[in-house]
Task: structure prediction
Amino acid sequence: LIRTQVRDHLLGHFQPGLPFSVQHRVLPMLAYRPYEIQVALQDEVQEQVGLPVSVRDPQQVLSVVVSDAGGALEAHLGVSRTDHNLSAWPGGMRRFAREPDQVSRSEFKLLEALEAFGVTLDDAHHALDLGASPGGWTRILTGRGLRVVAVDPADLHPSVESHPLVTHLRATAGDAFSRRDLPVFDLVANDLRMEARHSAKLTVRAAGLLKPGAGTAIMTLKLPAKRPLRVLDDAMSILSARYRIRGARHLFHNRHEVTAHLSLT
Result:
């Protein structure tokens, strides 16, 4: 039935030659497994219009939600360009492979943020990592060739601590800002474990250490269970004093926080 609906109503909405993927959601679990639906629809589109399948880098998406409506199978389908969606991954569930030298799961948060906001670090040389312990974000940044000043009173993972591109300041962020031997930074990374408004104030202070006209920041905003939107609005207002807010999103690897991408105003 679903293949018939795709064949009769949706094939004309695909753009010729562009790779596609199938994003599916089955509510609740039916006799059909989600993977079986995915494969069936992929085969249908390939048979009818010959488009290539790309799970990692699709340019258009066939979306389907299947549910049991009082004993009858009900499906909602649509076709869209990937750049019209919030994510190219099914349900926004971006997956990264765990690397052998990974030191924390928080690395996935930074990897997803860089990708989601389209942040390139090709021209960046120095980064300031606030709340660095155990060093996951620092490891990602050094892997991109940046020299990192990692600020945290706590220990870094030994593999991060000993990296030649890492300088570990065993200090709070506030104390670190008073130092006179810091370089000019291209990027401030802030994953501090503190309430969003306090963290935003520290990120504003860090703006004075960024390269004028070119500095950028990526930070996580920890929100309370009560009145989270009010706290988020307050934090954004604080950040707006020094930054242009380029984007702010819940990410798959950071669903309990909001991740923000900022640039100097």
